[in-house]
Design goal:
The structure holds 2 protein chains of 2 kinds. By secondary structure, chain A is mainly α. Helices cover 70% and strands 0% of the residues of chain A. Chain A contains 8 helices and no strands. Chain B has one domain. The chains are: A mainly alpha, B mainly alpha.
């Protein structure tokens, strides 16, 4: 059991050690769906939801695996839970908002292979977060991911109107932007301590 | 970029295409998370690259061998399970070989499961081809990944710590570029290499065509 306060956990996961900008987790959707502000926000929402479900199940799985003394099955069971959660979200979005379903495209099923989510499960286990702390951690991680995505989308929407040399266009530009954002987030170090 | 590879036998091409022409990180921009996260020193980059290479080759072979058995409706879940099994093996293997490396790589060994390169090759190549070709493809892509990681790691370690493989390169008066070993340095280094390869490809294509008018087609 970790004895961090819930507020510290939240600050830590959302700002100081932002999943995307400090741990390089979930870079693929970060670069892929950060073209439009609207899509970015909803992608963030979907990821946060999957994180929440994963965190709840991981608490259960860890208790079960400890009971049957089989820690080596951890990785495999996490990934199965994540894949099922993503399937659930996919069906839900397809039913409620076909437009969003099309906008997210391939990146929706790819949430399964979003490292941010599996990393959440692993960090939660390694740091010994309990049930409640796990939920706060998942919310904070999702909020941090959404924040990074929204900031990036805002900058990229503006840059769409700027004159950019051909060589830099695309991924290279996005990476330079991400680097600058990451420098900015380093300013949060030491917050709340 | 397709000229020149047409004459090669397919086996060589299966292997070589992953190294440069279809390099998983620099050209397809897959697997960027581990490429950025563990490339702050060459040693970590190499360890990560080799671990991924092993998982890629093993899972490609296993999935190719099972391609007639796995029903297409549950293929993704089956691939992930195969990959997760090999990653668990690698995780315990590295822990047994070197505890230092295991600590430095941390959660990123387990995160090989969600490396898009591996699932991507399983879906795009191994599920459709024979075991031999899948093995070559896995080895090529894995080496390409390894190579890119070492490229990133070299730049970041030389600039960020003034050393290579832990050996000091410059005198004591060298001021480390601390930002290069921090997360933002990873983004900048990766952007730098991408810019370099974009520029190089463009120059090559505009030279071979001879007219500047078609240079825009490089991207």
């Amino acid at each position: 059991m970790s004895d961090e306060s819930l507020w510290t956990t939240f600050l830590n996961a959302s700002l100081i050690n932002n999943f995307v900008l400090a741990y390089f987790l979930g870079i693929c959707p970060f670069l892929g769906v950060s073209n439009k502000l609207g899509t970015a926000t909803r992608m963030g929402g979907a990821v946060t939801f999957v994180m929440l479900i994963t965190s709840v199940f991981v608490s259960g799985i860890n208790a079960l695996l400890a009971a049957i003394d089989a820690p080596y099955l951890g990785l495999i069971s996490y990934i199965v839970v994540i894949a099922s959660a993503v399937q659930l979200v996919e069906m839900f979005i397809k039913k409620t908002s076909p437009a969003l379903f099309r906008a997210l495209g391939i990146y929706l099923p790819l949430i399964t292979t979003n490292c941010a989510i599996l990393a959440l499960a692993l960090f939660q286990t390694n740091r010994g977060y309990g049930f409640l702390q796990g939920i706060v951690f998942a919310l904070a991680g999702g909020a941090g991911f959404t924040l990074a995505l929204v900031l990036m989308a805002g900058v990229r929407e503006k840059l769409g109107l700027a004159g950019i040399p051909d060589v830099v266009k695309g991924t290279a530009l996005a990476l330079i932007l991400a680097g600058i954002l990451s420098v900015a987030f380093m300013g949060f170090a030491g917050l709340g301590s | 970029m397709s000229n020149g590879s047409d004459g090669l036998p397919t086996a060589t091409d299966d292997f070589l295409k992953g190294l440069f022409r279809e390099n998983p990180v620099l050209v397809q921009v897959l697997g960027t998370c581990p490429a950025l996260a563990v490339s702050n020193s060459v040693r970590n980059a190499l360890a990560m690259g080799l671990a991924t290479l092993f998982v890629l080759v093993a899972s490609n072979a296993a999935i190719s061998a099972l391609r007639k058995v796995i029903p297409s409706q549950v293929r993704m879940a089956s691939y992930i399970l195969v990959i997760a099994t090999f990653v668990t093996i690698v995780d315990y293997l590295i822990q047994a070989i070197s505890l230092d490396v295991h600590k430095a790589l941390g959660a990123f060994i387990a995160l090989i499961v969600v490396n898009c390169i591996i699932l991507g090759r399983a879906e795009a190549f191994a599920s459709k081809n024979t075991i031999g070709r899948a093995l070559l493809d896995g080895a090529g892509m894995g080496l390409g990944f390894c190579l890119t990681l070492v490229l990133l790691g070299t730049v970041r370690e030389i600039l960020g710590s003034g050393s290579l493989f832990g050996v000091e390169l410059f005198g004591p008066r060298y001021q480390d570029w601390v930002i290069m070993v921090l997360p933002s340095g990873g983004f900048f280094t990766f952007a730098g290499w991408l810019l370099f390869f974009n520029w190089w490809k463009k120059r090559r294509s505009s030279r071979s065509v001879g007219t500047a008018a078609l240079a825009g087609g490089a991207r």
